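Please study the protein below:
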Amino acid sequence: MTLSGRHGSSELRSVWRALDALCAASAPELGHQLALQVIFLRSWPAPDGAGLDRSFGPAEPALNRAWALLEFGRLSDPVAHQAVRSRRLHGEADRALAALIAQVARLEQPAGLFDACLDRYSSRFGAGGDYYTPRPLARLMAGLAAPQPGERVLDPVCGSGRLLVAADEWARGKEHGPGVLAVHGRDIRPEARRAAAMNLTLGGLHYELGGEAVDSLHAGPTGLSPDVILANPPLNTNDWGYQELIRDPRWSLGPPPKGNANFAWLQHVVHELSAQGRAVILLPDSATRGLNTAESYIRRRLVERDLLAGVVALPSRLFPHTRSGATLWLLARDKSASPRWGRKSRVGEVLLADARRLGTPADRAGGAPRADAAIDRIWQIFANWRGTSSAQEDGTGQVDWCRSVNHDDIARRGYDLSPGSYVQTAPASTEDALSEAEHRHPKDALYEHFEHALRMSERLRDVLGTEPAEWVQE
């Protein structure tokens, strides 16, 4: 049942109206942080009288007292905890907080409200790059990595902890077995770490978020050697510390370009993995085919060292705040047949899936049934290909948007990793085409011109028989 179905649409609207009033009376970010705390205290069976019982007096001190009784509230980040204790709302904002507390208290079944509040935060602040991973995407990333019971999972940019929750849910869903052994998260934002602590606690997970908020690129490897890494790092970050980190031993595939951190994040993930580890990382579509010399070299080395297992081109506008395309990269330290990888050895192969046409634009934003079915199709194809499902055939021959290619095929195309270069994806339906035309951004046409120029360059290189380094300047 949907959240609105459990609570009644009028109850849910009352909660959101109270949250909007709190955001209007205080800073919007602060309003959502307070709302997450209120919802958590309402949702979790708090011990030792830590529940939020405000029968009289200002609302914020009551919230702070309840929060102070929670062990993880004190230990997850001492600096952030002190900031919570020293925060003081003025009269109007405190009254708005009291109204929100009252509305949340009226809900008989608050399950799902915490997730809904995370989604609301993302829709409000996502345009500035401050968002939490959408639930459908988290489920897809977990499905591609396929965490197993007893494995250790890391997210180096954990945000609200959604990817870690999805990993545990995936492991538990296999034959109703136990979840993962432990989940580990790191994030640079204290507010995100606090949201992750609440989210993981509600999920009943054994988690570790480090001693403080950190930038994983600058903090370096954790030394955990996780079996699975799921990561949704900030895309195309240009000020990532190139000068300080240029000689870092993590760059075994080559120095990342100075202009963005995409391949720094990818190599950080590769470096962290255990000997048989798998990872799924979200990267912009441009990372699959950019002409930057450093990026081209890293893509080549990634393939030559057989660390790349697959790439999925995701539907555009998957994130409601951006029109940019994105891709999921499945990485693996060992693709030979094994209990962790699967029954089918895929040494020297890469599975490329062009899923840009799966689902409609309306489905993509909210996890509608058709979008869920599309997500299931993607991870099932990968599961069949690896041999982690009961199916004997890999299923790639039954669809036109997916193809398993060998390293020679990729080398002939100049190590272009965009799935659309290898498969003949069916054209969009008339409905999809009209919707895309309505939402078309002027930059989209420019990107298409860039892609066309890249195809022409590849054809020219094939004719001349030259290597990328001979004709492409950084």
